[in-house]
User: What shape does this take?
Amino acid sequence: MTTESPATPGIDEFLSASIAKRAELRVLFIETKSIDCFYQYMDLATECSSIVDKIEEPCIELVDEFTKLVANTLVTRFACFTGDIQPTVTNDDLIILGEKAFALCKTHVRLALKLCQLYEAKQNFEDCERILDTFTTTDASKTKLVDDEKQRITAEKEKYQKELLDKGITTVKNFGRKWLGKIGIDIDQFKLQPTAEGGYSLQYGDGSNQNQNGGFTFNSTS
Assistant: This one.
């Protein structure tokens, strides 16, 4: 099956045992949705990861098994832990494991989607986009899954950015009411309008020009 590395003997035995254990855990998880499955998957994936690290050029079978183990670990984590029940393993731990597996295999769609979810939980939409853009496949059904996820992530990113902008505007307005109101400036007359360049135009009054109704504009593309 594989050629054993002198530095890491027993790869064949590990792979056989790991594949058998993974199949056993999969059946158990489907039947029970046991939280213990997540931790057993994590232990097995971590052990496989340590073996991968010891080999300069891991065999295809080992990379394939490692990728499947990590994908199953992430899928199980999302299926087992909901609401107030959270794993003691942090999302950052899982991201490190997921990134290592994804670097070795960029064609595993479940791994890509679940790794994307971990980044989304941190509002790290740039890394979500990186993972989805890096994913490669010739399978039309997988391509559609990833394309749909890209559209969803884009919408979530825009929603999150708008929330941050609204929060910032509210903070500025509260500050303005406290100080600018003392000199007769109505802070509610300030408005942000999107521009064609992708930035925003800060307007006071009607914003038509500087000399009409006290309006002026300040443009920014940042």
About this structure: The chain has seven helices and three strands. The first helix runs from residue 11 to 32. Strands lie at 190-194, 200-204, 216-220.
